[in-house]
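User: Fold this; tokens only.

Assistant: Input:
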Amino acid sequence: MSHRSSGGNGIIAPRRGLPGMRRKLAGSSSLTVAFLGGSITEGAGASEPETASWRALTGVYLQSVYEGRQLRCINAGVGGTDSSFGAHRLAEHVFHEGEPDLLFVEFSVNDGDGREESVRGMEGIVRQCRRLNPDMDLVFIYTAADKNLTGYKPFNIAVHEEVAGYYGIPSVDCAAGVYAMIQAGQLDWKQCAPDGYHPLDEGHALYAAFVRRYLEQALLGDCSPGEPAAENLLPPVPLDRCNYEYGAMLDCSFASYSLDFRVGQLPPGEPLMNWRFSTVHAWTDNPAAASALR
């Protein structure tokens, strides 16, 4: 099964749209929107991640669209994580927090240079979502970095688009928008993101504007989705049969450790880990230490 982008402009590929969120415009129930990604989704670079990040700004816009409704946003961004880990984190960091109506997925910067692993991660996220909640909508977000500001489709984004096209997932290519602005002399990327990855407030606002442009089209526009609502959203034949649809994280109690390991509670912000979630971890500073799953 394949999907063609319809009405795209180089930044937006609408595909089947957001039929679930569009139907819910007429309702009155509460909504849950989740953001799964790396440090950019978490809010790195923004002066205040909970108000100035693209994630936070997108949540504010959606709240204005669904005015008068309770709209809960789940921040499942974790710095330095890729889509493979995202597929394994999805159940605990997203679905255990609430059943989402809409999920944004952002891993194009953090995924590596292996197509197979990237497909397995992104496809695992999609298939897991559609198995657990067939009515939820998804959007892939591609943020900018030095490696993907080119005049052609960068490798990681092309791989993610392969998954998006197969499953009809709409995508917003912020990197393409940033590149076009740089070429037009409208943006200084190094001022926008001094480290080449994490945008300051200006960059987060720009990403949010690209996302909002798509949401306005998908939720409030007159155009119909690019694919029929009755299609098979979970095709029996995946792109990669080894995808991480059933990926999950195991508690560290499922492993045994040598005496050089310590096991205990690490609070958020502890420099031993890049993790907002307060949970039990196993750690060691001895490279010869050993662990094994039981």
